[in-house]
Amino acid sequence: MNSNVSEGDDASSFVNDENDNISICENSETQPQNRKRHHRHSAHQIQRMEELFTDSPHLDKKQRRELSEELGMEELQIKFWFQNKRTQMKGKYEHKQNTYLRAENEKLREENLKLGESLSNACCLACGKMIDLGDLCQGERRLRMENARLIEEIDRITTLAAKYIGRSL
């Protein structure tokens, strides 16, 4: 575990690890001291923003300014809080919708499987034989042939009646 450290001109350190990978390490003196720390809002601030959010999830500039003065916060903090809250609400809504849709999808899948099973075990009510979905059972074929014959007979009678009456029906 040999690591070579060489000082650079800009107060950064270059480190060689055992695999000869070079990485830069910032010295604590060179890190910016003016960075703002993460700030948690007070319970009062959050409660007030929650109240306003339920009324209107989008504040205009005037409302943001008034709220920032009221709560002692910057306008940008309020803007970002509302933006984050909208994103959070959208995520919760989408999660709820996804859960509902998954459950609905599962119900439909189970129903589809049951229907498929019942179709594979279906039998003709007229003859009692198992129905092959690719084939029509004998009773249905007979009904279709009878239907075609009756249609032809209706056409023939309509033509005869039209000749007898002298006009088309």
From TrEMBL:
It is found in: Nucleus. Residues 34-93 bind DNA. InterPro entries: HD, HD-Zip_IV, Homeobox_CS, Homeodomain-like_sf, HTH_motif. Residues 32-92 form the Homeobox domain. Keywords: Coiled coil, DNA-binding, Homeobox, Nucleus, Transcription, Transcription regulation. Gene3D superfamilies: Homeodomain-like (1.10.10.60). Residues 34-43 have a biased composition (Basic residues). GO terms for molecular function: DNA binding; DNA-binding transcription factor activity, RNA polymerase II-specific. PROSITE patterns: HOMEOBOX_1 (PS00027), HOMEOBOX_2 (PS50071). Coiled coil: none annotated. GO terms for cellular component: nucleus. Residues 1-44 are annotated as: Disordered. This is Homeobox domain-containing protein. It comes from Erythranthe guttata (Yellow monkey flower).
